[in-house]
Amino acid sequence: MADTQVLEVRNPRTGKADHTIAVASREEVAAKAARLRANQPVWEAMGVGARCGVMARWLGAVKARAMDIGEADAVDTGGCHTSYIQGFITMGNIGGWLEDAPKAFTDLEWQGMSTSMPTVEIESQVVAYPITGVISPWNAPLMLALLDAIPALFAGSAVLLKPSEVTPRVIETLFETVREVPELAAVFDYVTGPGDVGQAVIAEADTICFTGSVLTGRKVAVACAERLIPCNLELGGKDPCIVTATADLDRAATAVLRGAVYATGQVCYSVERVYVHESVHDAFVEKLVALAKEVRLNADNPRAGHIGPFTFAPQAAIVMRHLEDARAKGATVLTGGEIEDIGGGLYLRPTVLTGVTHEMEIMQDETFGPCIPVMAYSDTEEAIRLANDTHFGLTASVIAGDAEEAKAIGKRINAGGIFLQDTFLTFAKLRTFGSDSFGWSGYGAPRIGPESLRRFLRRKSLLTQTGKVADIQDDHHLGKPGA
Ligand code: NAD
């Protein structure tokens, strides 16, 4: 047997490789998939009620280890206050589905007579995709590994996860809790390694949920198309925020700063472009810069401060490329703007830019760092045109004098989630409806709300002829026209 290949993992706070992961071979991925495939029918057959019982026990195991999970997430990502609550967020995710999954299934059952062939009884049945493959990114590495995996498991699917090779520690801790619940461990497993291992998962799975970059998302979509299996893609964003002339500027500056620099801007729905009415542009920028200067790095203490280092070192280089391009094309950097190496961690303070145009990368491509490019607009039509001048369409925000004014603008922006009078309201949608991604931000069913569970199910119809069978010349089997 060939030696196992090993990959070194960098610590974002020290810059040193202090962890390793094994790179799963094709054979190992296939063996894990075969085990899951063999166990999945029992998981599905036990029904949603019994699955909820198993998941409730897992919730207990996660609760007991919530602090350890948070610590591992903090080491993976570089540590910021969001990391330490990841165990509790996972508990909320499981707990939410414990309430919602049974209802989502009840609504799906249907039995009745055909409307076009009155003697035919139809029973509609749902069956789970046997194996859901989940491929997840390094930002919010636990939440984004589980956002799809948990509803898939509730739906009766087995899940094979390929987490990011950049942030594997938190997944290792999580699976210690999975192994405490044998029925769950039978249908939930993971494999480690880089992109090739993701391709191996695609080769084994029956449906794929991918979260990551546009570049990789395309490769995943092509691989799924070749196998003719469905895929859900959650990709990047270049999310705009419009601040109107009537907006409360203190409110707008506070919301924009948080939306742009939270978790060092390494959030798919970060505010990445700000359009401010020209009459209040200078006053808004002054307030934003003042707030930005108050933001503290967490270099001394991962539990303190507002923003941590870049989780993935190459991301710092991408952000610098965007800043250099903007400067070269005439933008002015008012705060931040330089990467600081502190003890091996790469940090960037909130970076406010003015004088930006849509010719600059920073207004077109995903930056994924704590940068806030601000551009003036002269009328509402221009603001909407600029907000929609993008390949992406994940979320957008509008902050206006009142909610009605904000809504009128928000309704005309092409994105899945439009936040009014604030930023970062993504998770307010939990348990109600999800939303779609527009453009390059992805495709597939929403990943929040009942539709996100149903995407792991296929519908079957059992059609029973309760009347006479037709003879060969009887065309009534085609249904009555207009029926
Ligand atoms: P990435 O695309 O580099 O990697 C994502 C995952 O895909 C990793 O597990 C990686 O190993 C795997 N992978 C790489 N090449 C592959 C291949 N050829 N086939 C199969 N799998 C492959 O993304 P990243 O840098 O880890 O994450 C950051 C990106 O994720 C950003 O663009 C961000 O916007 C996006 N993101 C989107 C959402 C969303 O919900 N829309 C959420 C978070 C992050």
From TrEMBL:
Every Aldehyde dehydrogenase domain range: 5-461
Location of the active site: 234
PROSITE patterns the UniProt entry points to: ALDEHYDE_DEHYDR_GLU
Any one GO MF annotation of this record: oxidoreductase activity, acting on the aldehyde or oxo group of donors, NAD or NADP as acceptor
Pfam families given in the database record: Aldedh
KW Oxidoreductase (keyword) present: yes
Record's keyword terms, sorted: Oxidoreductase
Family: Belongs to the aldehyde dehydrogenase family.
Name of the protein in question: Aldehyde dehydrogenase family protein
Taxon lineage: Bacteria, Pseudomonadati, Pseudomonadota, Alphaproteobacteria, Sphingomonadales
